[in-house]
Every structure is written in C-alpha cells, then in structure tokens.
Write a structure and sequence with these properties.
By secondary structure, the chain is of the alpha+beta class. It is built from 15 helices and 16 strands. The chain binds one RNA strand through helix 3, strand 6, strand 11, helix 11 and helix 13.
Length: about 425
RNA sequence: GUGAGCGUGGCCAAGUCGGUUAAGGCGCCAGGUUGUGGCCCUGGAGAUCGAGGGUUCGAAUCCCUUCGCUCACCCCA
C-alpha cells in the first residue's frame, strides 16, 4: 500500500465512533455538572507560549514538539498539551476580570513527536479541565473529583488515585537540595539515567524503575516532610476534602510530574495493571504559570486525560456502549420506476428525521442481505406490483413481520414510531 | 534517541532446513424460489508473499539494504 496514516496516528473507523461519542458526551456532562464550561483553542500556537509555559528544559518542549515556520516566517508549534493554550486564552480574553474561580474544560487533539507504543501516540486526544483564580484546596479536591467521577461514569471502576505535594517556590528548592545531597552520597551506585537526572530533573530521580536505584529512592527524603507551613496546610486540607467526598487515595511521595509549571498538588489516576506505565489522567496545581506567561499572579489547577487510554480501558473491561435503537429503513426496489419511487420516498422519510437509504441496485435477495448487514430496522419493498396497487411491503427485520402500507401510511408510521419507540 | 520482535489477498492467518497451479477461516459477490435478510450448502472474485538488490536451474522461504508496524526503555495522557 502506497499511503498509510502517519506514524503514531490512527483512523477512528465507524465501528469505533460509538466509544468516542460516548466518552466525549460523558466528559461534557460530568464537567458541566461541576460548573465547567467548554473552551476550544487553536491546534497551533506561538512556539514561545510552550517554551515559556511548559518549560524549555522539559522533554516535551525540548524534543517532542511539532514546530514549523509558516509562510510569514513565524514559528508555530502544534499544541503538545492543553494547559498553556488555555492560560493564554484566559489572559487574552481578560478572564481574570470574570468572577473567580473560572472553570473551563476542553476536548481536543494534541501532538507529540515520540516513538509510539502501547497507549502512546503522536496525535492523541485529551479531555481536561482548568480552574483559575482559586488557591483554596477545595478546588484541588474538586478537580480531582471531576476526573474521578468521569472515569466512574464511563464505567472504569478499578482505578486508583495517587496524590502528592511538591511544595512551592519557597519550600521546593530546599527539598530539591536535600534530595540532591542524598543522591550525591550514593552517586557511585546510580544508574546512568539517574546520573543525568541529578543534573537535569532531580525530582524525576524518584520514579526511576531500575532495580538498583530502588533502595536509594526508599531512603530518600520525602517531599511532604519539607513543606512550608502554607503548603502543608494546603496539603492536609486537600486530603480532608477528598475524604469528605468519599474518594480513596494513596499518598505517593515519589509522584512527580514532567512539566515545569506544577506546584503543590500533583496527582495521577491509574488502572490496576502497572502503576506508572499507563496513567489515564494526571494533573496538578500551577500557581506560577499565569504570571510566567505575562499575566497577573493567578492560581490555577487542572488535569489532562488521554482519551485513547480511556477508550482502551473501556474495551479492556468490556464495557458495553448502548446504541439507541432508532428507526433505520432501507428501501428495496425492483425495476427503474420502483427505484425512482424508493429514492423519492426515502427522501420524504429522512425529512421526518428518520434514517433511510436506498438499497443497492442488485437482486432483492442481495438487497435484503445488505439491509440486514447495515442493521436496518425495516425494509420497504417496492416493485411493479406495489406501484400498481399503491401499497408497499414493509418488513420489520427484527421480528420478521410484514405488512402492506401506502406511502402516506409509511410516513405516518415513521412519525409515530419516532415518538413512541425510541430507546436510550 | 536505545533495544527486541514482526511484516503473506480488506481482516485473521498456514507455509519459512528453497522445488509443480501460495492452505484454511472471516468478510465480500453470486447461485440454491418465480420478488425477501439473519442459519446451512455450492461456486466466484481477490496476493507481483512490505520494497529494492543478490545467491540459485528454481525463493514467500537463504544473504544484504531499506521502509513500515508492534513492544519495552526514555518520557508522558
């Protein structure tokens, strides 16, 4: 085959569309039930937005962006995550003048140039929310609850929540120093990656998976023991609020996140399999981000969730997406006059809001088979006999019952059916 | 970027110590009622065996190159 979808991208075929619509509509419903309103931003942004927002030393910005110059010479980047764009929109449209907090959610594609593997794509989709202008920990608990309730609502039940606090500008540096000191004392037994991390991203040291590094991680100082008073209060209240809404969590002091902008609360939700490999949702607080992007100091918190990963888990659990059984009529025809009549009548039916399509120009048997395979609910059979008598044969494909109806009778049937038989 | 596995009709695939027309299943099309689906039976269409080169009388099967896919690391949703 000459052409195929670019590496790390996939086609969502008709058979899979049900999952996507199910996930998207559930996401909207759950987010809206918490007072979040949808926002859509462009797929590409000024490259500097991501450099300044996400951090120029993060892997995402350093080596995973799709960056290009447009014909005018501006450097643009395909959005690799949702938060930076939404912060930009918040500032651009003066949302800091709206009543705070401002609650927003999004469903959109993101792009990262990575080697694809299980649950990881170059073009992928995220459901996410952001809450701006509230530093009280109730909103941290709320954000976590949105992601939790959504996963439950969609039927993914066997999930676990890990939370941690990585402190703020005040206390985190002290912790990082303590961590570095600890690691420098063990530098002889570190894996090569951890040697690198010690310089580039010390917090990442904590989730190294190499066997020989585990003892060092276990004996490492815990971040939550270095929190300043305000951060510690925030941290403790968050846990109380989560408990209040009945969400179980486990504190994971090795949990850190890959983007520079996080502070205080960070969390992840994972399916039961491997604890770190397939994070479904991750998020946290980013109190310094808006300011860093040139706006007023504004607290913010949100999460991002991989829709492909959600769907993967829905499939893994064999969750049934119930499709509504709608009227879906195929018009079988024999002979040119009948074909013309079926074209006319199908158009009338559609204008009443039902689904109808003309059968393929083949033998009746073949048309019936096609109707069956297309999951048609009814077939209307039109031939010379029907045209001369003015009554058409209507076959219910589920029950196999047949009856004779005039064209007007069929239209009335469609109208009535629509109101009385629709199942959801 | 690193490492491993794999690439045979639309899909799942047998065949891979080289040898006559490359199994089988699903799906598709047709026939088995003169105007009727879902089951069953029969038949049919559809593959230059990822691509290029080489070895050989002869290669899907061996060698080289290349592209692609998958998984793991890294990183992350």
């Amino acid at each position: 085959m000459e052409f195929q979808a670019p590496r790390g991208t996939t086609d969502v075929l008709p058979d899979d569309q049900g999952y996507w619509r199910y996930v998207e509509s559930t996401a909207s419903q759950v987010a809206e039930s918490f007072g979040y309103r949808r926002i859509d931003t462009p797929v590409f942004e000024d490259t500097n937005l991501f450099v300044r927002g996400i951090g120029d030393s993060t892997d995402i910005v350093e080596k995973e962006t799709y960056t290009f110059k447009d014909r005018g010479g501006d450097s643009l980047t395909l959005r690799p995550e949702g938060t930076a764009s939404i912060c930009r929109a918040y500032l651009q449209h003066g949302m800091h003048n709206m009543p705070q907090p401002v609650r927003l959610f999004y469903l959109c594609p993101n792009f990262r140039y990575e080697r694809p593997q299980a649950g990881r794509f170059r073009a992928f989709h995220q459901f996410g929310i952001e809450a701006f202008g509230e530093s009280d920990p109730y909103i941290d608990a709320e954000v976590i609850e949105v992601s939790w309730r959504f996963l439950k609502a969609v039927g993914i039940d066997d999930i676990s929540l890990s939370i941690n606090s990585i402190g703020d500008m005040d206390c985190r540096p002290k912790y990082v120093d303590a961590l570095k000191t600890h690691y420098q004392n063990h530098s002889s037994s570190l894996c090569p990656d951890c040697h690198r991390r010690l310089d580039t991203n010390p917090l990442r040291l904590l989730d190294c998976k190499i066997e020989s590094c585990q003892p060092i991680i276990e004996s490492a100082p815990k971040g939550t023991e270095y929190l300043c008073i305000p951060c510690n209060t925030h941290w403790l209240q968050l846990q109380e609020y989560l408990t209040a809404v009945g969400i179980r969590f486990n504190v994971d002091n090795t949990l850190v996140r890959g983007l520079d902008y996080y502070s205080r609360t960070v969390y992840e939700i994972t399916p039961p399999t491997d604890r770190r490999t397939n994070v479904i949702a991750g998020g946290g607080r980013y109190d310094g981000l808006l300011e860093q992007l040139g706006g007023p100091a504004t607290p913010g918190i949100g999460f991002g969730m991989g829709i492909e990963r959600v769907i993967e888990n829905i499939k893994r659990l064999g969750i049934n997406i119930v499709a509504d059984s709608k009227l879906n009529i195929m018009l079988a025809h024999m002979g040119e006059p009948a074909k013309k009549e079926s074209i006319r009548l199908s158009s009338e039916i559609r204008q009443l809001g039902a689904e109808a399509f003309v059968g393929p120009s083949r033998g009746l048997k073949s048309q019936m088979r096609y109707a069956s395979n297309m999951n048609a609910s009814h077939t209307i059979i039109i031939g010379d006999d029907e045209l001369s008598s003015g009554t058409y044969t209507v076959r219910d494909l589920t029950s196999g019952d047949q009856s004779e109806m005039t064209a007007d009778g069929i239209l009335n049937f469609v109208k009535d059916y629509d109101n009385s038989h629709r199942v959801n």
